[in-house]
Specification:
It is a single chain. The chain is α+β, with helices and mostly antiparallel strands and about 325 residues long. It has eight helices and 14 strands. Strands 1, 4, 5, 6, 7, 8, 9 and 14 form an eight-stranded mixed sheet that branches. The chain has a four-stranded antiparallel sheet with strand order 11-12-10-13. A two-stranded antiparallel ribbon has the order 2-3. Strand 5 and strand 6 form a beta hairpin. Helix 1 crosses helix 2, helix 2 crosses helix 3 and helix 5 runs antiparallel to helix 6. The two termini are about 15 Å apart. The structure holds ligand DP6. Ligand DP6 binds next to helix 2 and helix 4.
């Protein structure tokens, strides 16, 4: 077999990764926690070439018909990752490859958009180098791509990323399968334009926020509490912590030097509407990654009501409905 096909989900962080303690190995300051998303994924095909000179990346953007060859920054990141993977897997021989990658969701959906791609590629490169890795090592490899959150897309369902003290113990595990809890993530697209500052650049400045130290201190408690709420399926407390966490991360983001403002006026409008609806008895909670779009987390029983509500809101351009999903796999 000289070709394989891989499917890998994006994930939404309930506890966020922001800031890198070790910038060379992409080690985070804190544990993080996420859910794999059923409708936001990458399908990646990788073909092995004996000629190491052949290295190509083709990408099909969301809603486009054709694959385009990439020679820009995204291709450079793939080559950098190829060399890191080779070193991590202790492989001497060089291979060529041709990659075809397509996303099921708009690139700027307010998701850590590269997580699904790099987790898929981690499995792709381990196959290329003829290594059969367990979930732990595959997630370490994914982390080394530079898109740290991609390590959480590897295990099934709900993932916990242990921050670790060194590269070999900073990895993600599944803490519950997709069927564990019927949560729904409605991604509310408020803007389809590209964000101006990447998460990667953002991470580098996290420590310059005066609030960063306080965030790390408060996280100790929040991490314990959210785990409790999750295992008790206490949705109300879980949701409260979810929002507290999102606001905590964005407070750091907005007070870094230079500050970053991922939220827009529309983000704030929708947050207010979610809180209003909650007061009226429709229970859902927001969380936001490095973008202005919102993830509304609710229970399956309220999904239709929320869909009807958000379809009527002028700020919302598109809604993507997600359930918990499996991790990175061959298809
Ligand atoms: C705010 O460095 O993993 O989404 O490379 O853009 O995929 P990308 O992001 P990464 O940082 C993710 C930051 C975050 C929070 C999170 O997902 O934990």
């Amino acid at each position: 077999m000289n070709k394989v096909k891989i499917k890998s989900p994006a994930n939404i962080a309930f506890i966020k990764y922001w800031g890198q303690k070790d910038k060379k190995n992409f080690l985070p300051y804190n544990d993080s926690f996420s859910m794999n998303l059923s409708s936001c994924y990458t399908i990646l095909e990788i073909e092995k070439k004996e000629d190491p000179e052949i290295k190509k990346l083709y990408v099909k953007e969301y809603e486009k018909d054709d694959f385009e060859v990439k020679t820009d920054d995204s291709f450079k990141k793939v080559i950098t990752f190829y060399h890191r993977a080779k070193e991590f897997l202790k492989v001497k021989k060089d291979y060529g490859f041709v990659i075809y990658s397509a996303n099921s969701f708009p690139k700027k959906a307010g998701l850590a958009s590269s997580a699904s791609f790099f987790s898929a590629l981690a499995l792709g490169f381990s196959w290329l180098f003829e290594k059969n890795l367990d979930t732990k090592n595959l997630s370490i490899l994914a982390r080394l791509s530079g898109s740290g959150s991609s390590c959480r897309s590897i295990p099934d369902g709900f993932s916990w990323w242990y921050k670790g003290k060194k590269s070999s113990n900073s990895y993600a595990v599944s803490i519950a399968p997709p069927s564990y809890w019927d949560l729904v993530d409605l991604v509310l697209i408020l803007n389809k334009e590209e964000k101006k500052v990447s998460s990667l650049e953002g991470h580098l400045r996290a420590e310059t926020s005066g609030l960063f130290r306080y965030r790390l201190l408060s996280l100790e408690e929040r991490i314990k509490e959210i785990k409790n709420a999750f295992f008790k399926k206490n949705f109300t407390y879980f949701g409260y912590l979810l929002e507290e966490e999102a606001v905590s991360m964005h407070s750091v983001v907005m007070t870094q030097k230079p500050p970053l403002f991922y939220w827009s006026g529309k983000t704030v409008e929708i947050i207010k509407k979610i809180i209003e609806e909650r007061k009226k008895g429709l229970e859902g909670y927001f969380t936001i990654d490095a973008g202005e779009n919102i993830h509304l987390i609710c229970q399956k029983k309220d999904e239709e009501k929320f869909l009807n509500f958000f379809k009527k809101q002028k700020e919302v351009l598109q809604i993507i409905k997600n359930y918990p999903d499996f991790g990175t796999r061959f298809i």
